[in-house]
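Hey, I'm writing a tutorial for new members on how sequence and structure tokens pair up, and I'd like a real worked example in the thread rather than a made-up one. If someone can provide the structure for the chain below, I'll link this post from the tutorial.
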Amino acid sequence: SDLYFADIYKYEGNNITFDDWDSNGNGIYAEWWMYGKDILDMYPDVYVGRLPCRNKFEVDIMVKKIITYETTTYGQQWFKKFVGIGGDTFAMESDPYYEGELGVSVAAGYLEDIGFETTKLFTSTNSLGGANDIISGVSQGCGFLDFEGHGNPMSWATHPPYDDETWIGIDESQFIQFSNKGMYPICMIGGCHNSQFDISLLNLLDVKNLKDTVWHSTWGPECFSWWMARKIDGGAIATIGSTGYGYGTIGDSDDDGVPDCIQYVGGFIDSEFFRVYAQEGKDILGEVHGTAITNYITKFPPMQDKIDAKTVQEWILMGDPSLKIGGYPS
């Protein structure tokens, strides 16, 4: 969790103290089980982003993309576009909601209010039928890109309505087809493990755990989110996603007429990023990301629920936290 590095201090009474995520002092950090529980603050005190470059070549790619973005994006028509991709995440006959499509629609609504043109690729409208639809949508250029569905470290996918046996999505091997050179979006990725940056081809050498390695897709050269960000002449300028399970909900358990999938856990925090940008006047990437985490923690105190704690701990930014969203005027 990069939130560990962002959460520097906490309040103990009227005193400010260093927060090392080991409040019981037993050397086990962020502990939460039957034998011990660390009390964590989790509010980000600084804005942290990660560029998990594995070599100088990737450093060069990202430096050039960031400079290009900040010096050429301002005032460009393509930036004022949003592409959202979703379907029926939890495709069950008993659940009337298409969770991914609802999440995308909430994000799109915030951006439409400030003049963005939105494109929604949905399985329910047949505008999302496969990877080619995603490639086409991204390649036309957009300021923001939003995937809401399922994931693993190497791919993202969703379902058509009420059909949990059919998967529609995209994997890393198809990123080469993105042709949005110079038109790089900030990309939200709602799904499990898409930002699990510790995967490696070397995991295939662990013969004893080979079955688990293949099953969990941890054998790829790099994870989905990072590959999207560091793609040459295409992909994204930054990504936000989960390093572990991306939690979602179904139905309307509190009977308030609002689907739970946009009120809680991943569905809430993903759309909160877009709300912060659209409504709070913040346009520095790390600040928008950090503020969304702060707002989540304030609304859902994470020390009261493990899932809320994991939601904010796993939700990391792969990109430059000082990035000026939309670029600087020349």
